[in-house]
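Technical note accompanying the year-one report. For the benefit of new consortium partners, we illustrate the data format agreed upon in the data management plan: each record pairs a sequence with a structure-token string. No post-processing was applied to the example shown here.
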Amino acid sequence: MYNDLISVIMPSFNSDKYIKNSIKSILNQTYKNFELLIIDGGSTDKTLEIVKNINDPRVKIFQNPNKLNLIDSLNFGIKISKGNYLARMDTDDYSYPDRFETQIKFLKKNPSIHMLGTRAIYINENGRSKYKSFNSTNSNEIKWLMHFENQFFHSSIMIKKSIIKKHKLKYGLVMNYKKKFINNAVLNNEAEDFHLWIILENFGKICNIDKYLIKYRVHNDSKSSSNKSELNRSFLSSCNLKISLTIGKLIDLNLTNSLVSSTDNSSYNLTKYIRILKLLEKKFLLNIKNDANIINFVKKDVNFKILKYRYNTFNKFCKLLIYFIFILKNGIPNNRYEFKRDLEFLIF
């Protein structure tokens, strides 16, 4: 039986609506040897009152009157942690009782894996199940898919602390395409997890286990529902880093947007899109040896993305053609603002 200490990092800020249920899910784990580090960033609701009423020596509360942002809270949690493993938990999510036990066993049996996530069941603000995730559980598939989308749920993550200490990793680090850290760059609070996974991937295998071990809550107050424009920008920057690392040169952010969304972009025609996607495929597969399944997976995905891009481009052309036929027949609408808006919608 394994008995390694797990440090569970839970930043909080005005989380009184769900935090009690989230903490309870951690305290009910079948694996008992953990510390739950709650780092509060200056809550003004009943969060601290709820936490302080929990009578369990494994729960440790850290208050900061200066309102630590999310990245600072996460890094503070890493700094004060005493465990051999770092686990994450958000204040609005839920962990199934066997989560820690399952993850520890998997990591012990697979020493080459340094970070392990799980699949998740999406729930609404009332805790009602919406649908299940289908994030990949194959290490090489994840390496490829991370060029275009995040494959991990932050609340499901467990990391070997040794890999963090060895390479001096932390949230908010910014790496360039030459795998060098940029000390004066600042990463904002959006997509900070995705960015770290991309960096961590350069130092060891990262993977998901094929089990649904958390409930991931989507509600109006969650980061996934608010600040969407900032989240999208941060997400694209992380994808841009991943693609640039694989290709070996910095690529344009607009091109990254086209690659991620598989939609037409005014700066990049189909030929350029196919060329860069094929280059990404070639560079990626150079590091994949004797794995016919992943080679086939990547080639199929590339072909699908090209087909999707072709369709979106053709679809846009058809819409424009129909609209201009309408204008030729009926004339330009009197409302010039509406005409301009319609054209922008069709083109962009």
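Partners are asked to follow this layout when depositing records. Residues 252-330 form one domain.
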